UniProtKB/TrEMBL annotation:
Domain of life, per lineage: Eukaryota
Protein name as it appears in the record: Uncharacterized protein
InterPro entries: PTTG1IP (IPR052304)
Key words, A-Z: Signal
Stored PANTHER family: PROTEIN CBG20567, PTTG1-INTERACTING PROTEIN A
Signal peptide as annotated in the record: 1-23
Length: 92
């Protein structure tokens, strides 16, 4: 009985581990991109997303860089966290 348990338990753990990995792979990697063409508010409901005003694209924030590269979206048009941007102007 004990020998059967020593064979069955590792096999059960292996199968459950594989099921978990396969389930994770079936989830979409680019959730942000499904919000393309919607609105900044819809895009930024997910904290890992970046909205580009000019192109109306919602993309996954490139975490490997501190700021999004210009090729992805010009910095003046990029929004993450909040949709609005306060522009400061100085007058004489």
């Amino acid at each position: 009985m004990m020998k059967c348990l020593w064979i069955f338990l590792p096999a059960l753990l292996l199968v459950s581990g594989l099921a978990t990995v396969l389930a994770d792979e079936s989830t979409p990697e680019h959730v942000c991109e499904t919000k393309n063409g919607t609105s900044c508010e819809d895009c930024l409901r997910n904290v890992s997303c970046l909205w580009c005003i000019k192109t109306k694209l919602c993309v996954t924030y490139p975490v490997q860089t501190i700021l999004p590269p210009h090729s992805l979206c010009p910095l003046d048009d990029a929004r993450w966290g909040l949709c609005w941007s306060k522009k400061y102007t100085f007058t004489d």
